[in-house]
Amino acid sequence: MNIDHFQPTFEYAKQLDKDDPLACFREEFYVYPHSIYMDGNSLGLLSKRAERTLLETLEDWKRYGIDGWTKGKHPWFFMSEKLGEMMAPLVGAFVDEVIVSGSTTVNLHQLVATFYRPKGKRTKIVADELTFPTDIYALQSQLRIHGFNHYTQLIRVKSRDGRLIEEDDLIAAMTDDVALIVLPTVLYRSGQLLDIKRLTAEAHKRGILIGFDACHSVGAIPHSFSDWDVDFAYWCNYKYVNSGPGSVGGLYVNRKHFGTNPGLAGWFGSKKDIQFDLEHTFIPAESAGAYQIGTPHVLSIAPLIGSLEIFAEAGIERIRQKSLHINQYFMNLIELELADMEFVIGNPREDERRGGHVCLEHREAARICKSLKENEIIPDFRAPNIIRLAPVALYTSYEEVWRVVQTLKKIMTEKEYEKFSNEREVIA
Length: 428
Ligand SMILES: *Cc1c(COP(=O)(O)O)cnc(C)c1O
Known about the structure:
The chain is α/β, with parallel strands linked by helices. It is built from 13 helices and 13 strands. The strands form three sheets. Strands 2-8-7-6-5-3-4 form a seven-stranded mixed sheet, sandwiched between helices. It has a four-stranded antiparallel sheet with strand order 9-10-13-12.
């Protein structure tokens, strides 16, 4: 993406904020007055609307008790379906293909338990060696449940440079002994965005089902899961979707799979109108709702209602445009102001291959992050050498990005980082 007339000045940053059509959303969030939050890719900030819908839900509990399931502002019995409808535009799906339920890891277990159907010599699962560990643990344990050796049956496609995974290498791993492929949409360290459409088409050509972990793309990037014919996807809502720590996740199942019995069945997956008949014969919903398990975690869903109102108003296409633009601005500044300081930008540079954060590599990354914190800037560190910095479209300003780069420059030139040890904290 070109940034026309890029200048490294403070005035130019102010001008970009003035011209930003999404700038009005910043005041919807509790941004910190004295510090700069660059970690929205790990935990999004609280918005006033998310706070409001959480408080409204507490009020419904206070007022209605058990009747809150069907009464009040946001009746609990229908919440997961209603929010699935509200989320569908974020992932490019039909409204009944999305349900808000469970967590990333639990939904992955559910979807693999449902769609991993080893048959004959088709028994392997393909993932990649840079994926988030929980995905690997879940896939390995699913293989063990089926009585397979999780070392030989789980293929982890190698990265050529430790940062990126080449689509060609993934496609080469789609051999006729593979039953299922599970990949991230965006890699959590380098921020590489995979070509979901191409990978899905190639998997299907070879009779392989494909699912995506969309934790690092939902809320930052538009998707077309239905059009691309993706079989399933799952994600959390506490990163770019700003729904709060431990908030309930989401899953997508392609309509063509409706009617497939859930691998992990539970009563909230029932057809809704007969759930309370309480029969012992399980009749699953004919929608993504079938893959719910038990009672929804209502208080951890409630903030999502308000948060998704903001997404509906801002529009995911505009969010992506700003995200690409502000990240490009950030990279331009880094290259200019931090030249010769041994920083390497580890994310891909092409718009169609990058996600929502900048991956900044440096051998002193851990202590640079501690220095940033001392300077009231909140980054996140991924061992051994990655500083992830996410300018978030809905609440980060260009001025803040400018200040982050100026602070990094000061930390490096004045060697402020040297007073810290180069080790990670408990949570990094
Ligand atoms: C954040 C993240 C998770 C987290 O899983 P939880 O079940 O929500 O703890 C999983 N996968 C990826 C790629 C993530 O980025």
